[in-house]
Amino acid sequence: MTYKKYEKYKDSYEEWIGIVPETWQVEPIREFYDYRSEKVSDKAYEPLSVTKQGILPQLEHAAKTDNNDNRKKVKKGDFVINSRSDRKGSCGVSPYEGSVSLIYHVLSSKDSSINAYAHHLFRSPMFAEEFYKWGHGIVDDLWSTRWDEMKKIKIPIPPKEERVKIGIFLDKRTKHINEQISSNKKLVELLEEKIITLINQVIHKGLDSNVAMKDSGVKWIGKIPAHWEIKRLKYNCEVNPSNKKSIEDDNLKVNFLPMEKVSEDGWYDKNSIAPYFSVSKGYTYFEDNDVLVAKITPCFENGKSAVVKDLEYGFGFGSTEFHILRFKEHILPEFIYYLIKTYAFRTIGQAFMTGTAGQKRIGTEFIENYMMVTPPISEQENIVAYLDKEINKLTKTINEIKENIKFLEEYKNSLIHNVVTGKIDVREEVV
């Protein structure tokens, strides 16, 4: 949609703002907001969550404390923003009265007519960049912006009657765009669920719907083709085999896969390498056609795994948080890869994880004793070919939808910035 521009503009002398309509002001935040420093107890004022969607009631209440000054008070109409750079975009004008953590800045407007406009201004990515640019910290990716700095940041302010119209316009337009984004995300979830359902069905039942079936004897598998077998996984694969290859030149670079170099969809970074001497001890060894399975939460539950092929020297090393499955002659590694993607393997595995919260792992014993369907290798080949084809089609559609989501997000951010800085005139868009 094409919007018109204002008749005359002037320079704001602020890089992040650029030009603004001639009738607008450009003033420091302190001219329009006071800092609310009142501290309260979480027993007296209900905790609020500050999210990228705005200010919401806190859904999961932490245990309330006896400390009477561990929170900041928030009134309806206050603007709340996280002072820390790791929470960019978490801010908004609060429709609720309550309390927030001390890491937040709570601002009360000197004129309530600014609220609807400011709710969008302060949530724009361009303002976020400007806001956190004023911060200080001891690490590169985490710093805080204090009120003493924030209050000096200059912002564009339209005349009163325009503030309200801009707020109404952006409320309506962003709601519509957010609904489109939400709808697209739900479609992605449905297609991803379809992939899992397809894998579950084909891996456990095969491709021939007319074949004679028998009871597998395993509750979560149910009936399987009558000529298939059920075996413990250790009889089809070696789990974490101990034999290793080596090279004489310790300085040669071999494939090395930290956890972040392997994805949930089977991708791995073939260009990730390291000198042999630096990884040959203390890391997990693997060879061509091995299947890597993440053992730690949440990577295991998310299905992070891959079949590694065409390695530089036929072998490599990776994170100690991988289990290695090496197939035997009657099993295809790709069939094992799809097997560990099934809902049954992942959900049953969760029940067998041990360790403390956030550090739970799936043990070797569970994998070795997992009861797996074992079709003839010719059927495994057909199953793998079919799943590759169908999943590639679904994945292509998913990626197209994700690109559309990205476009909508970028369009929304661009629209907000252009409206709150006056690059486009939306006054006549609001009746």
Radius of gyration using CA atoms only: 28 Å
Proportion in helices: 25-40%
Poorly predicted tracts of residues: none
What is the arithmetic mean of pLDDT?
A: 92
Physical arrangement of strands within the biggest beta sheet: 4-12-9-10
How many strands, which pairing sense, and closed or not: the largest β-sheet?
A: 4 strands, antiparallel
Query: Class by helix and strand content?
Result: alpha+beta
Distance between the termini: 17 Å
Q: What do these coordinates show?
A:
It is a single chain. This protein is an alpha+beta fold and 431 residues long. Helix content is 32%, strand content 23%. It contains nine helices and 27 strands. The protein is elongated and about 80 Å long. The two termini are 17 Å apart. The model has no long low-confidence stretch (mean pLDDT 92).
List keywords for this structure.
431 residues; alpha+beta; 32% helix; elongated
Structural topology:
Blueprint: E1 9-11, E2 19-21, E3 25-28, E4 33-35, E5 39-40, E6 48-51, E7 54-57, E8 71-74, E9 79-82, E10 91-93, E11 98-100, E12 104-109, H1 115-121, H2 125-133, E13 136-139, E14 142-144, H3 147-150, E15 154-157, H4 160-205, E16 213-215, E17 223-225, E18 229-232, E19 237-239, E20 253-257, E21 273-275, H5 276-279, E22 284-287, E23 291-294, E24 305-307, E25 315-318, E26 322-327, H6 333-339, H7 343-351, H8 364-369, E27 371-374, H9 377-420
Parallel strand pairs: 20-25
Antiparallel strand pairs: 1-2, 3-15, 4-12, 5-8, 6-7, 8-11, 9-10, 9-12, 13-14, 16-17, 18-27, 19-26, 20-21, 22-25, 23-24, 23-26
